[in-house]
TrEMBL record:
Mg(2+) 1 binds at residues 257, 270. It is an enzyme of class 6 (ligase). InterPro entries: ATP-grasp (IPR011761), ATP_grasp_subdomain_1 (IPR013815), D-Ala_lig_Van_CS (IPR000291), D_ala_D_ala (IPR005905), Dala_Dala_lig_C (IPR011095), Dala_Dala_lig_N (IPR011127), PreATP-grasp_dom_sf (IPR016185). Binds 2 magnesium or manganese ions per subunit. It comes from Vulgatibacter incomptus. This is D-alanine--D-alanine ligase. Belongs to the D-alanine--D-alanine ligase family. Its cofactor is Mg(2+); Mn(2+). The gene is ddl. Residues 105-303 form the ATP-grasp domain. Transmembrane segments: none annotated. Keywords: ATP-binding, Cell shape, Cell wall biogenesis/degradation, Cytoplasm, Ligase, Magnesium, Manganese, Metal-binding, Nucleotide-binding, Peptidoglycan synthesis. Cell wall formation. The active site is at 19, 149, 281.
Amino acid sequence: MSEMKTKKVVVLYGGRSAEREVSLWTGAAIHKALASRGYDAHLLDVELDVAARLRELGAEAVFIGLHGRFGEDGCIQGLLESMGLPYTGSGVLSSALAMDKVASKQVFDARGIPTPAWVSMRPEKARKLQAEDLPFPLPVVVKPASEGSSVGVHIARDQAALTAACEDAARFKGDVILERYHKGREVQVAVLDDEALGAIEIVPAAEFYDYQAKYKSGGTTRYLFPAPLPEPLYKATLDAALAAHRALGCSGATRTDLIVSDDGDLRVLEVNTLPGMTETSLLPKIAAGVGLDFADLCERILAGASLKA
């Protein structure tokens, strides 16, 4: 019998970030899977009294099903460390680094991990940005530096679109990041327990795999697993994702987003330390492709719950 089956496991979900809706789906799916395997699992929607609620529930281990700010950025991880509660996923520092696209880009550049050329700026400067002031030509990808699920992400091909994209990205807290646009295939790689499981290609109906395509597409997005790449290039995507995972000091499960061009050039966009766990999410799709069903995946992730500090 798994040691975790003797413990009271609390699944944290919901929260107060822009990704609350996705987190509600993630947490509910995780809770259902764990309960089906006989775990003493409980759902907890995260509010300001989360520490008191965890004590009231008698939590002995925590499965983090949160996304975005206060869940994916090291905040909840720090709280759980201070409470002495083992938890799933990456620790405080690696979570914070991965969530902050500026910090993670700096790590990638320092480690020689290929990533698009980029620049960041304060929201007030981004709102006034002119295309000629960029260090690379249009089109560019504009995004908030610390949001996930492609919230606030746009491709700007002219000045009007650049202004509108910067205005939207500036609504969120923190810097605005602008990346050189690389046309190519959208590939995502899952890493579990320091092993790259596989790569999947996303073929969205829209221009790129945005929030709508991820969670509201109604089946119009196509997923190709394994990603139909030449074997050396497929292996290169796995190696790049694992290198990014390790460079940020991640643990547990992560999902790395990449762009792969027709000439074989690949670029790491970001690492997600708390990947979505909904029926349309990519980590479960990749896991299923290598013979790991959803409940098995949840058990594997939970088995790695620990204190990292």
